Amino acid sequence: MEEPLPAPPADTRDDERKGASDATPAERLSLLVERERVARTGANGSLDERMASLAGALRRARLENAERSAAISDLRAAEIARLEMLGDALAPVLAQLPDDCDIFDVGVAPAERPRLFIDQIGFVEMDRDRRTYRFLQDTRHGRVALCESDSAEELVEAITAYIAHRLIEREKALAIDYASGGAAQALAVKAAAARNKATARDTASSFSSKVSRAAAFVAEFFGAAAFFALLAVLGAWIFRTYFTS
Prior knowledge:
This protein is α+β, with helices and mostly antiparallel strands and 245 residues long. It is built from six helices and five strands, in the order ααααβββββαα. It has a domain at 91-179. The protein has a five-stranded antiparallel beta sheet with strand order 1-2-3-4-5. A hairpin with a 2-residue loop joins strand 4 (133-139) and strand 5 (142-149).
């Protein structure tokens, strides 16, 4: 009976090729440099070679950091683009607001955490997955989530309902102010202040004009008196000089 032949040794190059195909370009370059160094001097190597390997590791770390920063910048740009699209979807709703309503100022704030502000207390931001919209509101009891969804249509409906409730609250506040006479009283106080200011201004201008006229009269009187006195002195001198002798 023939003995079974031993199994051929496993070819590790296929596994290395497979692992290298999944690696990034920087990792493949680092693996190639490491293989060449080990093939030349062994696993330990000299001090110069270890320093050169550290310098290469630093360069690879800088490249990876730059790639990571670029990825973060791209994610932030994607968040801003999603929020701007949501703002464009809200444009028809905002166009129906009353002309005298200035409590809504919709716009994207491109900060470190981009946000789409609806008013001073309500805003939309992206969740950690960069796909889910989170509609939040600041209240006296902290920040509450009004709606969370990855659908822009649901966010538009939630924001539309929020705007409607805010308009109703504004109408109630105006009605209470009018019923209590607050608006009329404020207008009356403002009008009285304007009248008092105009009266004081007119009084001050009238008094200053009277003072200026009195000063002008006194100056004219003394000027005329001085002129006639000078004429009298001159006439007396001429009389004594030419006629008396």
